[in-house]
Specification:
This protein has nine helices and five strands; from the N terminus they run αααββαααβααββα. The protein is mainly alpha-helical and about 190 residues long. Among the domains are: about 55 residues, no CATH class; about 70 residues, Arc Repressor Mutant, subunit A, CATH 1.10.10. α6 crosses α8.
Amino acid sequence: MDYANLILEYLKVLLTAPVLFSLLAVWFITLFREDIKALILRIAKIKLPGGTEVSTPQSNQLATEEQKPAPRIDNQVAVAGLPADLAPQQRQAVEQLIRSHIATAYIWEYRYLNYFLVRGTQLVLDWLIGLPQATTYMHYDSVWLPIIPSANERQAIINALQTHHLIQQDTSGMIIVTPKGREYQVWRGVLPPL
């Protein structure tokens, strides 16, 4: 009879809310371990109660971006506005420094675009680049209607690409991919169409 009471006491302890909640939490974490890991890796900043912030470096994303090629800068472009009395070596050094800063600015701009352009927008840009010739907005709209049913979202994609000068629309309504749009696609690692 002592054993029966002892077992009942253990069951009372084991079937309490904190113990059951802990077991449920462990089960949930083990079941969704990979999804939780991916979510935590995407978090860049956490605000804790009391105003404390914890930042995590997004080293995986930056590491893959570091391996991407630097944007192409034309070395033949003369830098305007330099003083005329500079020696040729000084002029060359200053021009090289300016070109390196321009290349760094392009890298940061492309990182920004890579981070903030949603996957659908990048797919539309890849599709536009893959076309043999420029297309009209009506053609774009009809092709992407089954994939992106919202007309507002399709227009927002075109607006985002235009805002960042990846495409342009001429007066006749043709959508043309800019050289910057093609360069951004190559920087992302997407092979240009043959």
